[in-house]
Design a protein that fits this description.
Helix content: 10-25%
Low-confidence stretches: 1-38
Largest sheet: 7 strands, mixed
Strand order of the largest sheet: 1-2-3-4-5-6-7
Radius of gyration: 21 Å
Number of helices: 5
Mean pLDDT: 86
């Protein structure tokens, strides 16, 4: 039962249901991120709280959503808040209300499912955290990173990332085909070639363990979990996706030079890639 709950909690990119209970800490609308990037205003809202469930378990919830008051296209907003099921009001007030409701659902669900904590044996603290972060907004490409983390017992928690880039000129999520026409098998070869270009988190008695030594797959898929800057296209993989948990999340770069001759002309021009 516990494993089923964990899988559901982390599926659809960590879509967490949420919660209320007595003794819950309430937070008002929070302006943690009120910045201007390329004349684009970004704000944020947050909901958080904690409560005790049974004699041996405390649970904590926190979630933060970005607010983009300048965006009005419904299809684009649906794509930006892709894992927030049932959300229809994208105003700051609407997003805050949605988070409070999600928090209430989370605590209620945890309180009802006593199979989860009936045999804990010792005091534990479980949690559900999720976050949206604006990473960049340049050339009308907006990059948002979604992250989530949860712990419901066991040796360690689970966490993951989703990267999404939105084309604000066309009001839609950017797809890999909008960037490069390189076939998947060639992209996979480059990903395998470049996997050790970023330092991994794993180590042993002899020091750092390379990412390539932690692989769980024979070939690395070119997923839609990507973003880019003026130098590289990056693919981001969460724990267990391609490597063992100890390796952590892995980011693999592919340079524009390596993609030369396959770049979409419009993308190349907007990004000023030579």
């Amino acid at each position: 039962m516990k494993n089923t709950i964990a899988i559901l909690a982390l599926s659809s990119f960590f879509v967490f249901s949420a919660c209320k209970k007595k003794d819950v800490t309430e937070n008002p609308i929070e302006k943690t991120e009120n910045q201007k990037s390329d004349e684009f205003i970004v704000d944020s809202v947050k909901a958080e709280g904690s409560t005790k469930v049974g004699d041996s378990l405390s649970v904590t919830f926190s979630s933060k959503l970005l607010v983009c008051p300048g965006l009005k296209d419904k299809a684009l907003l649906d794509s930006i808040y892709f894992n927030e099921k049932g959300l229809s009001d994208f105003s700051k007030t609407g997003l805050q209300k949605y988070l409070e409701e999600e928090k209430n659902k989370y605590f209620i669900s945890m309180e009802k499912d006593d199979e989860l904590y009936s045999d804990l044996g010792h005091v534990q603290e479980w949690f559900s955290h999720s976050n949206m972060k604006l990473k960049s907004n340049a050339n009308d490409y907006m990059h948002i990173q979604y992250s989530a983390e949860a712990y419901i017992g066991g040796a360690h928690g689970e966490y993951g990332f989703s990267e999404r880039v939105f084309d604000l000129k066309k009001n839609r999520k950017l797809e890999l085909k909008d960037i490069t026409s390189m076939p998947n098998n060639k992209l996979e070869a480059l990903l395998m070639k470049n996997i050790d270009k970023t330092k991994g988190n794993a180590s042993d008695a002899d020091g750092e363990v390379k990412n390539s030594e932690m692989l769980l797959v024979e070939k690395i898929p070119a997923s839609n979990n990507f973003y880019f800057d003026d130098k590289n296209l990056y693919f981001h993989y969460s724990p267990y996706e391609i490597t063992a948990y100890a390796a952590g999340d892995i980011v693999i770069p592919i340079s524009w030079e390596e993609l030369k001759g396959t770049l979409n002309e419009e993308f190349k021009e907007r990004m000023k890639i030579k």
